[in-house]
Amino acid sequence: MQEPFTPNRYDLDVEPSVSQTQAFLSHGLVGLCTSKLAAGSNMVYSTPQATIDIRGRKLVIETSNYETRVSVLEGDVTVRASDGNAGQILHGGQEAIIRSNAVNQASSIVHIGAIPDERKQFLSDRTAMACIAKRTVYFEVIDRKNDAGDTTQEIQAAEVVPTNKPTNFTISPSQLPQ
To answer: Is pLDDT of 46 > 90?
Structure first.
């Protein structure tokens, strides 16, 4: 949920209004590139093994059946496993590995340390794509009717069309390689 904000803003490094984000990642990988969160905002991602309270910037969350890996490139996050222990704060350059027990599904943090050098480029590529997307994707609220005929609101990505469409160049056959 996001409070309303003016659409004609130019500072994309600061969140435009207070927001509450809760997401669940059951499996796979997500690269995040966040703006500086506004005071009062929160961003929480959950996996089967952990809850990640994100305060910002660049991170990657990877999860599978029995393991979650949280890698922070910039900013900081708090990672909590389901074992009930206090959360651990991760800063830029650190990662945590959280594993769950196959018998009772309880999870605990098994490792916190520096991101290995051989993973840094891979992680950087994932957050770079997220940073590019952050600058090119806009959202709008649309009304939807459900099966009962009630109207609900849904957030949907809006198509971005450049104001000056690119010119289509014609290449003369005489310029083509033989």
So the answer is: yes
